[in-house]
Amino acid sequence: MSHNxxxxxxxxxxxxxxxxxxxxxxxxxxxxxxxxxxxxxxxRRALVHQLGPFARFRRVWWxxxxxxxxxxxxxxxxxxxxxxxxxxRFAGPVDVLAFSTGxxxxxxxxxxxxxxxxxxVIVSAAYRLGPRGAPTQQRVAEELRADRPRRAxxxxxxxxxxxxxxxxxxxxxxxxxxxxxFRRTTADLLxxxxxxxxxxxxxxxxxxxxxxxxxxxxxxxxxxxxLFTETAARIPHGRLILYPGRGHAGTQAAPxxxxxxxxxxxxxxxxxxxxxxxxxxxxx
Length: 284
Known about the structure:
With 284 residues, the protein is α/β, with parallel strands linked by helices. It has 9 helices and 8 strands.
């Protein structure tokens, strides 16, 4: 396939995917979303822009969770869906890059199905949600059940920033766009929140055999620096990059982020590299 060829479809089990780029496969697990459908329009353009730097070196396979989840879904179940889809599509283990809630699923995937994952990069996620992240997602679910999309978006967006001021701005933005954000919401969002709420892989991280890189911001309101640090430390071949002054939304924009990810996936980091890499101090 050429770099410009974009292919859309569904994996085994009905999981929507978008693939583009050239090179070895890089499977991308996205964060939480209002529904589990293939991206289109502005959402698709934003996704291609976000992952474009990786597509210059890898064939990106963006795969979201399957639609029609049971409301009592578990992370083990979501990981099982991915394992079946990946083993049916690829001849061997693949590299996985996972963001936020997708990172929660990817950690479960690597623990439950080690033969599926070659190398693992977890961005803005840890073995469980933090003390602010878990109750916030529960309140988001409550607001959605009560048909209050503006309040739900304000709560969810409000944890994206790195400082009280930026969190207030994000919360205000969520209030303004809440109806549009959740216009096409399905029960899959509530099911995913339920699954992530029940996640705690602390005692199983040592079962992850794939080399893993955990990347987070030390001002991520959904997690804590300690959770990122412990997640990386408990994985036998785990490494950590903790960006100072970065919140949940700003980690991916940190200078050097793409190069760090690609270097790790290609096995370039030295074995003696320190567990924590600190970079720029701009806040996002």
